[in-house]
């Protein structure tokens, strides 16, 4: 709750928007949709926070379909916007067009989908995606519909790829995973010194 109170202050300070937190003691998606829908008449936008995947995708989708006000899930969209801003600045520093960069994303929590979608909107197509089970490709039969949609947008990935090979070819490494990272800090430092990787840690 204190974090949400702080973000309410940020809204007021930098956007002139009055906001206040409402905590729901529920993990039931339909129940949350019903509650938020019933109180939405009092608000001009909805800010969702700390809802785990895949519930966050389902909740946001349902609310966006039934409400006529913006619905923001901060763990997805807020993180994606912050990382995109960083990437735009970084591309200027290294004097390389963002659209020509090779980007490696490791970790598949809530922000993962939003970051990938935002990169695609910015015409970045050379994206390698990894989750806790390794490289995300069409050869796997365990990927979610959200991951399949991303693969369809960036083109089919049928070749298996290990993360160290992906690192060698990457301009940017966006590290969203808390646990799964089968490379050492030594590898990262070597690639960074070779200007192969601009590492973003976000967890």
What does this protein look like?
The protein has 203 residues and is an alpha/beta fold. 46% of the residues lie in helices and 12% in strands. The protein contains eight helices and seven strands. It has helices spanning 2-15, 29-39, 55-66, 74-93, 110-121, 145-154, 163-168, 185-193; strands spanning 46-48, 71-73, 103-106, 127-131, 134-135, 172-175, 198-201. The strands form two sheets. A five-stranded mixed sheet has the order 5-4-3-6-7. It has a two-stranded parallel ribbon with strand order 1-2. β3, α5 (110-121) and β4 form a beta-alpha-beta unit. α2 runs parallel beside α3 (55-66) and α5 (110-121) runs parallel beside α6 (145-154). The chain is globular and about 50 Å long. The chain starts with a helix and ends with a strand.
Notable traits:
7 strands, 46% helix, five-stranded mixed beta sheet, alpha/beta, 203 residues, two-stranded parallel sheet, 12% strand
Topology:
Blueprint: H1 2-15, H2 29-39, E1 46-48, H3 55-66, E2 71-73, H4 74-93, E3 103-106, H5 110-121, E4 127-131, E5 134-135, H6 145-154, H7 163-168, E6 172-175, H8 185-193, E7 198-201
Parallel strand pairs: 1-2, 3-4, 3-6, 6-7
Antiparallel strand pairs: 4-5
In short:
The protein has helices at residues 2-15, 29-39, 55-66, 74-93, 110-121, 145-154, 163-168, 185-193; strands spanning 46-48, 71-73, 103-106, 127-131, 134-135, 172-175, 198-201. The protein has 203 residues and is an alpha/beta fold.
